[in-house]
Design goal:
Layout (H helix, E strand, L loop, with lengths): L2 H6 L10 H11 L3 E2 L11 H12 L12 H15 L9 E4 L1 H13 L5 E6 L5 H7 L3 E6 L9 H6 L5 E7 L11 H11 L5 E5 L25 E6 H4 L8 E4 L2 H14 L5 H10 L4 H4 L1 H15 L15 E5 L8 H12 L1 E2 L1 E2 L12 E5 L4 H13 L1
Parallel strand pairs: 1-10, 3-4, 3-5, 5-6, 6-7
Antiparallel strand pairs: 2-8, 7-8, 9-12, 11-12
The structure holds pyridoxal-5'-phosphate (PLP).
Amino acid sequence: MDYKSLIDASKLPDVKTTIFTTIGNLARKNNAIDLSQGFPNFEADPKLTSLVSQALNNGHNQYAPMQGYYGLREIISHKITSLHQHTYHPENEVTITVGATEAIFTAITAFVGKGDEVIVINPAYDCYEPAIVLNGGVPVYLQLDAPEYKIDWTTFKKKITDKTKMVIINTPHNPSGTILTKWDMEKLEAILKPTNIILLSDEVYEHIVFDGREHESASRFSDLVNRSIVCASFGKTFHVTGWKVGYCVAPPELMSEFRKVHQFNVFCVDHPVQRALACYLKNASHYLELNDFYQKKRDFFLDGIKSSKFKCKPSQGTYFQLLDYINLTKEVDEVIGKRLIIENKIASIPISSFNVDHRNDHMLRFCFAKKQETLEKAVEILCKL
Ligand SMILES: Cc1ncc(COP(=O)(O)O)c(C=O)c1O
């Protein structure tokens, strides 16, 4: 077997083990407080886990429908109508996916072909680019500047060419913790209106928005909604990232193409979990209370590090907080990120890995979806640096 020639022809020659895995392993090896990876270290609501047990015991152990369990699609549709005043029909506009990751990969695979350009806004979550490249597409990057991470819509517009097939946005935004405002979404809508460009809107942190701000879903905007595939994640919303269940919504024409790929990619998603989620979602407080829940954690973290050398802009959404370490050291972020793990026993994610050409903006990303005692220990370490 000539492995070398196979590897030389790799479809993703530049992809290495993700920074999350590298940092996570280093954190475990050094027994560090881990604020690097984006998942909670506390348990999900026992009501939700017992609903899964019930579904298992009630025999929902065979394939779910390809599009997802109807009862779950129906309640998602109601949720979106009540939050964003747009109704997606559960029959042909809602699909349950293997987390948002599958929704994103499937959407890109369904629509992006050889030579198609896709606008990616950096810093960007790491699953967009490989999916574009695997499908022969060309990522076109728009790098935002720290610490504001604001999109300049004039610059954005200049990135559009007659080859642009898709634009990917992420609001609330991982890693910067910024959100797109109504004004931003209206700008985007006006720019895309005369085009045939698809919008892939990654809204996995839709229910984690702070200080009374609103999550401005693409579903809210009458022209955007007709061109958007909106992706969401129950993992993020219900503290169960390990379940990998999410969904996406789109107009029927886009959804039917999406499902052509979905059905041969995964066919369907974990059935008992879908049954449980359908039941759990009936109580809207289960997701509406998330803003407050995480805002308390963000505030505790920010209050705790007030006397530290870090500079920051409070996160507007997501469960991430960026900290600017320039007053501490001039080292590049990957170096200080690793040094903090080994010497100070605290792990975070260096932001250069999300930037174009690994640009170093002296920013580290800390995840505050952690137990109180974990946050207390983290704050203590950060204040001593
Ligand atoms: C911005 C963003 N999109 C998508 C995902 C993937 O979500 P899921 O775990 O539901 O696949 C994540 C997970 O960290 C994320 O941060």
